[in-house]
Amino acid sequence: MAYNLNETFRSLCTEFETLVRSKYLIDTSTVSAFNYLASLEEFAEYSEILNTLREIRNALVHTDFNVDGNVGLVVTDDGINAIEEIIEKIKNPKLVSDVYSSNLKYCHLDDSVIDVLTMMAEYHYSHIPVLTSNNKIIGVFSENTIFSTLANNGSISLDGNTKIRDFYQYIPIDQHTAECFDFIGVNDKLYIAKDKFANPIINDKKLVALFVTIDGKSDRKILGILTPWDVIKREIERKN
What domains are there in the chain, each with its CATH number? Predict the structure, then answer.
């Protein structure tokens, strides 16, 4: 059993090195595939694991661990699972399209504020994108939109005739005082979004959501939204 796992690990290491060499066009005779991958931002979370796998691989290849006829170094199931997970990540990297919410709740400038607030309460949303008729972004209506209006005007009036456009001054995404929004392409690798959310303060504002478009440009149609919770939920599912 031990020999089988060790041989399986050696075989997976060979597959790993071949895959890294072909995908990233590096010469693995001069640079370790493990070290190279660990240096990439996309695999930053695996850097320690890659270093450990490299040390195990080198030990199995270059050192005799037979002790009185018994195997002195045994690769465990955890080691096999770790390198298999990394190989799968190289072959099929997670994309924004795998995680983002395409069932987007949104509003238009002429929608009733009362109706939009009701929708926000029903779905437990704190932000609702305001879109044009062809699904391009105008801005975001949020709880802070109301607070900003109240802070600047001293009072607000809400009734059935109040429209989203009545708050237009505070709706554009660059007019929010404490929060900000960004854009990302639907086929971008997910690690790009993770990195953005890991460093969420931009010009003293907190990044709260990424709007998903075909290529990450802000003047394209909005396909959906990606939030930190979407990324966290994916990580929980991966670990389970």
Answer: 2-93 (no CATH), 98-239 (3.10.580.10)
